[in-house]
Amino acid sequence: MPLVRLVTVIGVVAFQCGPVQADGTLDIEIISPFSMSTEIKGGLPSCGPAFETALEEVKHDYPSLNLSQTFVIDNSSPIEVDCTRLALPSDSQVAEYFYTKRRQRPIEGRNCWTLFILSGCGNSLPGIQQFGNGLNKVVLSSGISSEYLTDKSQFPTLLTTAVSPFFMSYNNAFLKLAQLYNWTTVTVLTERGGPNSNGGFESQGRAIFDVLSKASPRIQTYFMLVSLTGPVTEDVLNAILDQFTASSRIMILSADSLPTNKLLIQAGARGMTKGSYVYVLQAPINMPFDGSRLRNISDEYHFEKARKIYPSCLMVGMGGEREFVGHEMRPSHPFVNIWKEMSKKMYNYTYPLNKQPPLHAASSYASVVIVANVAEELRRQQPPVDFNDGAFLARQFIGRTFQTKIGNVSFDKLGQRIPQILVGYYDSDDDKFVPFMSYEPSDKSSGLETLRPFKWSLGSWPVPSEPGCGFQGLRCTAGSVWTSTIVGVVVVVIMAAISIYWAVKRSV
């Protein structure tokens, strides 16, 4: 598969091939812009083996499909990049390849389907999606997508197989949680930008705030934008917590584990982790909360202290088979060792100890297999399908579930993969967050499903989102306090009188 370095754009009319006999061979040309970086989860060293496996599987299972894939790579880009920089080739480089550099063009007089499949991230991702959509070609993302995906009126050809928290259904899970426990006052705290996230935490936090603040019945929602990843003083942390306690008892943290741990530790030092407050965490990107007791207690993430605070937290994260999946594949999956070995052989990349292929790899594999599934169906249709109509082709994925060797992949009405979203409590004995509820939005279900009994060791549950006397204590006036005291005394006297009466009666 060729690696292509691109420099400029030259506009040329793209080759088109129309529908012919439906029972003939179908050529499928996949164009995949990629980064060679090992620092991003969707880089070619991680996802290339998954694509290779899928291509071999399609060749075996669908002999009438002639499928080829070209990786378009900007060799001038540094190898060690992350999502905050130009990790993918630019849209202009992809355009140049499409118009002038394609080595395998469809054969005239035969069915052909040209589409884009891309994994990874970077500032150029939306531009590539715009370019492919403008050509009326299917653009299927197996990594991070963009907000364009939700605008089907302007971007009808976009799809994604990625399991990502950056979808509306993930944000809705926080709303379902607040409604279930009648949390009418909630604070959303988010880290500004975030390392290697391309501003992901901030945009995620704003999206969660937007969903909660527009809820009906009304949820009073407060938004706090902070910067805790770098050095931070106790005064800064205390100021944040002072603002929080003045308006809420429920905090949703859209931040990575490092800034989250800093705030939780300070909350613990102030006695705010004993059952009167709930901290709803977003699954982190860089370092998981689970398994922290196995890590060096002197590391910068402060897990030794933070782990004592986790019992006052819930975590909302992506799941698979009713278990949290994190950002890596399960070590037990049969593809894991195969793809590790292929990464070493094909790209000279060796996975670090205890690291597994990312979920992007599984989604990349699924993308090709699902395309082949749809292609085989359409190849046989009469009248013949127009494979130049990307909007029509994209609609063939929507609202369907496909079975693959990495699990079922279901698409919603927007072309997004329907995720399994889990809510978990922290089990101190096992040092991990245990899912006790799931949320899988579909036409048949729109609520949270209980998976197992919930364990809350810090008093009564659910924790109210507001103190009984209000945040300023104004609901408990002197008169109401005096009245409550009198009632309490009367009740005690009556109970004592009843006890004396029965004691005397038994002695007679």
Structure write-up:
By secondary structure, the protein is an alpha/beta fold. 33% of the residues lie in helices and 19% in strands. It has twelve helices and 17 strands. Strands 7, 8, 9, 10, 11, 12, 15, 16 and 17 form a nine-stranded mixed sheet that branches. A hairpin with a 4-residue loop joins strand 15 and strand 16. Helix 4 packs across helix 5.
* Helical amount: 25-40%
In quaternary terms, these chains amount to single chain
Order of helices and strands: EEHEHEHEEHEHEHEHEHEEHHHEEEEEH
Low-confidence stretches: 1-16
Q: Could you describe the largest sheet, including whether it forms a barrel?
A: 9 strands, mixed
Give the N-to-C terminal Cα separation.
101 Å
Task: Kindly estimate the percentage of residues that lie in beta strands according to DSSP.
Answer: 15-25%
What is the tally of helical segments? 12
What structural class do the secondary elements suggest? alpha/beta
Task: Itemize the secondary structure elements and their pairings.
Elements (H helix, E strand, L loop, with lengths): L2 E2 L21 E9 L9 H18 L3 E9 L17 H11 L9 E8 L6 H10 L4 E3 L16 E3 L7 H13 L4 E7 L8 H14 L6 E7 L7 H12 L4 E5 L2 H13 L8 E5 L20 H4 L6 E8 L2 E2 L9 H14 L11 H21 L10 H6 L5 E4 L2 E4 L9 E8 L4 E8 L9 E2 L27 H30 L1
Parallel strand pairs: 1-3, 2-3, 2-4, 4-5, 5-6, 7-8, 7-9, 9-10, 10-11
Antiparallel strand pairs: 11-12, 11-15, 13-14, 15-16, 16-17
